[in-house]
Design goal:
Layout: E1 3-4, E2 13-19, H1 23-35, E3 41-44, H2 53-56, E4 72-80, E5 86-93, H3 99-102, H4 112-117, H5 125-134, E6 136-138, E7 153-155, H6 163-175, E8 192-195, H7 209-219, E9 226-229, E10 232-239, E11 246-253, E12 268-278, H8 281-291, E13 294-295, H9 297-302, E14 309-310, E15 322-330, H10 339-342, H11 348-353, E16 364-370, H12 374-379, H13 382-391, E17 401-406, E18 421-428, E19 436-439, E20 448-451, H14 461-478, E21 483-486, H15 519-532, E22 534-535, E23 566-568, H16 583-600
Parallel strand pairs: 1-9, 2-3, 2-12, 3-9, 6-7, 12-23, 13-14
Antiparallel strand pairs: 4-5, 8-16, 10-11, 11-12, 15-18, 15-21, 15-22, 16-17, 17-18, 19-20
Helix pairs in contact: 1-7, 1-16, 5-16, 6-14, 14-15
This protein binds flavin-adenine dinucleotide (FAD).
Length: about 600
């Protein structure tokens, strides 16, 4: 099997190198190997293999978010004034399979108008639908022509669901005018709620890109030219003497890898005869490019890196969906939430030994796409109304926010009273705020100049979206039969005299009317949002597919401007954001990219 931690000399020169074996990287590697088994391919992945039980077993997903964990890379942003001078740490997949191996397994597809808004030949929704179908074996409801039924990734409800929470949420959302939609992932449906589908097989296994695309090819004996080097971080791309053509990569052992052997060897080089494809994710790819001399001359000069190609868009316009999470006390039973397992009251080893159905659960039972009513838009003020009129009003395909129901306390349970909780997670899509992510020196260990930019947009439109979403999710929660009040430390500290104050209740609320928030309450909410907004782990757009003069880094065939034989395939290329959790778009980018590279390499399929 072509998995290495130390590269044999025979593999030090291949046809194609893929720098990063994440979601998109695994798809590209497997599809290229499938198209031409004689093509020699080397994936250079910074992290370990994905053969870890917390990856395979869905219910253990929270372990990947522990800051001490080794399965994610935590990209540290600087303190940002508008966020109460907080430093945000943005986790991103850091093992073979990337985010698909460490994520929360929510199945969520971009909207039709998201792809169309890219305005890029070959990437419209109609162009992308065949790839969205090709990647999946779908076990859910909906129109047959929208889904795939023989692809590598199984999409199902998994082996477990909290049916009472689902029904309760759907009934409460219905009272506020949001209907249940059986397939909210059809590209066209919007403004409703869905019983969640997941990247979990019907028998309860995580469906990550490494397990489903790459390993089968590594193990089937028919792809001897497919190789994967683990625990190896790509420092930079190597060019020919004229600095025009990418001919390889320099890499070093990952000193942070729990499984790697630090300082095993110095920086080494692997050579590529045909293509170098960078697929290190939206947080990793811009740094690889900048260390290679591709980027803004000002950024490169500050970092003491000679310019190979002047491409000013690299690392600019960083975007992420902006997450807020709100916990509630509930009357749910222990088997209906994650709380017993997450708090250690139930031993995970025991449920693994018993092969309990709960193993195949990600605790996210509902997903929603929501838009505000006209009156709610107006109430958010004239600037918000202008943004809405310009960007949303006439496009009913675009939601303002995505929301999920989590069956359990959504974080570190330390200090949280024993009990059963549920939570609403909300992220506003299409943020107006932008950040950046640049290197500050030529070495891989040099600190990053990274700002998320959350809530920096003109007129605070992103903040107003979050204010609307806070009020909306709370009204849904208050109409649920299992609601027993807010878990106060997870909500803004409204004073006891306010109608918005957090409460405890012994039973469900009756005759629920919407909370009226005063100007003082809104100020408290705004401050709280600034001090608590965080990453949704959906980084995109740092090496856009757009014209170079519009901060683009790659063209529609994913060719990096200014050099030859260098491509990008990951979520850094998104020209505009998507109203979805981003794994599906990463898989689809991988599929589309693979087809482009197969054509460019002259491989006939
Ligand atoms: C905690 C978490 C929860 C999420 N939950 C969901 C969800 O429920 N549903 C959903 O749809 N999406 C979710 N996502 C988002 C989704 O997983 C990502 O958007 C997707 O994985 C991005 O794919 P990518 O190919 O662009 O990059 P990645 O999958 O991040 O792959 C990048 C790869 O490059 C490697 N790498 C980085 N730098 C280097 C280097 N210098 N040298 C070598 N290798 C390098 C990394 O180790 C990684 O394997 C979540 C993400 C995270 C992190």
């Amino acid at each position: 099997m072509g998995l290495y931690t130390n590269l044999p000399d025979a593999v030090a020169e291949v046809d194609v190198i893929i720098a990063g074996g994440g979601t998109a990287g695994c798809v590209v590697a497997a599809r290229l190997a499938e198209a031409d088994p004689s093509l020699s391919i080397l994936v250079v992945e910074g992290g370990s293999n994905n053969d870890i039980s917390s990856i395979d077993v869905p219910v253990l997903f929270l372990s990947h978010l522990a800051p001490t964990g080794k399965t994610n890379i935590f990209y540290a942003a600087k303190k940002e004034k508008q966020l109460g001078y907080r430093e945000i740490f943005v986790p991103s997949g850091g093992v073979l399979g990337g985010g698909s191996s460490t994520n929360l397994m929510m199945y969520s597809r971009a909207q039709r108008s998201d792809f169309d808004a890219w305005k890029t030949p070959g990437w419209s929704a109609e162009d992308m639908l065949p790839y969205l179908r090709k990647l999946e074996t779908y076990h859910g409801p909906g129109a047959k022509d929208r889904h795939g039924y023989d692809g590598p990734i199984q999409v199902s409800r998994g082996t477990y669901r909290a049916a009472r929470s689902e029904d309760d949420f759907i009934s409460a959302a219905g009272k506020l005018g949001y209907p249940e939609i059986e397939d909210l992932q059809s590209l066209d449906a919007n403004n409703g709620v869905q019983r969640a589908m997941r990247y979990i097989s019907p028998d309860g296994k995580r469906q990550d890109a490494a397990s489903r695309y790459l390993h089968p090819k590594l193990q089937d004996g028919n792809h001897p030219n497919l190789h994967v080097l683990l625990h190896a971080q790509v420092v930079r791309v190597v060019f020919d003497k004229e600095n025009q053509r990418a001919v390889g990569v320099e890499y070093r052992p990952n000193p942070n890898s729990e499984w790697g052997v630090p300082n095993l060897h110095p920086i080494r080089t692997a050579m590529a005869k045909k293509l170098v494809i960078v697929s290190s994710g939206a947080c990793g790819t811009p740094s690889v490019l900048e260390r290679s001399g591709i980027g803004s001359p000002e950024v490169l000069s500050r970092a003491n890196i000679p310019v190979v190609a002047d491409v000013p868009g690299v690392g600019d316009e960083y975007e992420d969906h902006q997450l807020l999470v709100y916990p509630y006390k509930s009357s749910l039973n222990p088997e209906e939430t994650l709380d017993e397992i997450a708090s250690g009251r139930r031993d995970p080893e025991e449920i693994i030994r018993n092969n309990d159905d709960i193993l195949g659960w990600n605790c996210q039972d509902i997903t929603c796409r929501l838009r505000p009513s006209d009156a709610e838009v107006t109430a958010l003020g004239p600037e918000f109304q202008r943004s809405w009129d310009a960007d949303f009003r006439d496009n009913p395909n675009k939601p303002l926010t995505l929301m999920s129901l989590v069956s359990g306390f959504p974080g570190d349970p330390t200090g949280v009273p024993a009990g059963q909780y549920f939570a609403m997670t909300i992220f506003s899509v299409y943020p107006y705020s932008r950040g950046h992510l640049h290197v500050t020196g030529p070495n891989i260990g040099d600190p990053l100049d990274f700002e998320t930019g959350f809530f920096t947009d003109a007129n605070d439109i992103d903040l107003k979206k979050a204010m609307w979403a806070y009020k909306k999710q709370r009204e849904i929660a208050r109409r649920m039969q299992t609601y027993r009040g807010e878990f106060a430390p997870g909500h803004p500290p409204f004073p006891a005299s306010s109608k918005a104050a957090c409460i405890s209740t012994q039973g469900p609320l009756v005759d629920v009317q919407d909370i009226e928030y005063t100007t003082e309450d809104d100020a408290i909410l705004e401050k709280w949002l600034r001090e608590n907004v965080s990453t949704t782990w959906h980084s995109v757009g740092t090496c856009k597919m757009a014209p170079r003069e519009e901060k683009g880094v790659v063209d529609s065939r994913l060719r990096v401007y200014g050099v030859d034989a260098l491509r990008i395939a990951d979520l850094s290329i998104l020209p505009h954001n998507v109203a979805a959790n981003t794994n599906n778009t990463a898989l689809a980018v991988g599929e589309r990219a693979a087809d482009i590279f197969i054509e460019d390499l002259g491989i006939s399929k």
